[in-house]
Structures are given as C-alpha cells and as structure tokens.
Known about the structure:
Layout: H1 13-20, E1 49-53, H2 57-68, E2 72-76, H3 84-90, E3 94-97, H4 99-105, E4 108-111, H5 118-124, H6 126-129, E5 133-136, H7 142-145, H8 147-155, H9 157-164, E6 169-172, H10 179-184, E7 194-199, H11 202-214, E8 218-223, H12 244-251
Parallel strand pairs: 1-2, 1-4, 2-3, 4-5, 5-6, 7-8
Antiparallel strand pairs: 6-7
Helix pairs in contact: 8-9
Amino acid sequence: MNSAARPRTAGLLGLASALALIFLPVPSAHATGKTAPAKAPAETVKLRKIGIIGSGKVGGSLARLWVKAGYEVMLSSRHPEQLKPLAQQLGRKARTGTPREAAAYGDAVLIAVPYGALPQIGRDYAKELAGKIVLETGNPYPQRDGPMAEEARRKGTGETSKALLPGVKLVRAFNAISAVDLNSQAGREGPLAAVPLASDDTHALKAAAELVKAAGFEPVIVGGLERAKDFDVGTSVYTRVLTAEELRKQLGIPD
C-alpha cells in the first residue's frame, strides 16, 4: 500500500474498533474449530433472505455458501429460467427470479455483475433497493466496461458505486477475492482467509460481517467507502489470499 494513503486511517480507527466488538459468528456449515474473538453483543443483525443480482461465478458461489449456512436466497438474471438447475441443486432454500424480484426479496442484496452494468441497476431498481443493505462486488475493467471504468479506478470504487447506487446502505465486499478462491478457501482449516469490507453505514457493516463469516471467511473492516480504493484492482491485496492479520498489516490497520 502507498504510504501516502495511511493517514486516511486516522478518522476511521474508532469505527473499526467499535465494530470489532459487535461482530457475531452466525450459524454456518463451515466448522473452523476456532474460538470467535468477538464478544456477544446485545443487538444482532437479523438477516434470513438474500437477493442475488448476477448469479455467475461469484454470485453463484456465494449462493451455495449461504444456503449451506442456512440462509434463503433468490438467484436472478435477465433469464431466470437458466438458473433453475442451480436452484434445484441448492435445494428448498433457493429460488429464482428477475433482478427486480431479487432486489425486492432480500433482507440484504448482493450485486455481482460486471461493473459497467451498475449504472443501469441503480436506475432500474432504485425503488426496490432503497434503504437496503447492498453488498457490491464488481471491479472496473476498461477493456470490458469502457470509459466509466477508467473514471471509477481514478475515483475509487467505493465513491463511484455510492454515486451509482444512491439511497442504499452500500458495502464494498467480496471484490478482492477470486471466484476460484471463494470455493477453495471457504471454511479452510487454520486462520480463515480474510475478506475486506468498506462502508459508511455501521449497521450495513455488521450485516456484511455476518455474511462473510457465514460464507466461511474472516471479515476485516477497512473503513468507510473512501477506503474501498485500498483493496481495488491493482492494489497489493487484490485477489491475494491473506489472513486477517496479514491483510491488516498490508493496509496499515491495527488489530
């Protein structure tokens, strides 16, 4: 990480420290044998249903992991009938629908689409997504997504996605891990693989942390959406499989 970016941590350490005390493990099929470092809070985030917009490699992998952990999911695409085999494979806790239906269905919504599709999603489903916790995983690639991707890289995906998805409780999540590692590293033995998170909303961070744990990974709060650029494409931690301790060290975040 560029040393010039480190001063930005100062205003966010309080947020990260406070959140570290309120994360709870959630029921998961992944037994790690590790004692959770967090203490049980008086308040938990109750999520049962997750709408998934974009059910490809990342969305489909997370659907499998969350169903195993006991969540209900709605897989969606522009052609939901093509997702029926996957839903049948996942069992009674999985169903299919259109992106609009998935946006309305979820207590939280995962958006896992090419970054260039994000502006249209923000426009088309603004009503259904309003006020919801949204985990957004996309990464801008100019060769695929065009000029908007170049601007997103300059500005940072946290601030860009915030502008493209107004009115939601946005969390940048699962963008810095490959689909292959989502499947191979989930619930591994020893220290879990870390997933960095960034959001301006404390409640959304709590919910996202639960979902990360349910998928078999360790959440690491990097800070507000401004700091999402620290795990964007091209950074030292992008698509690297790191423990929480290693990730914090790379990004200059204290334990």
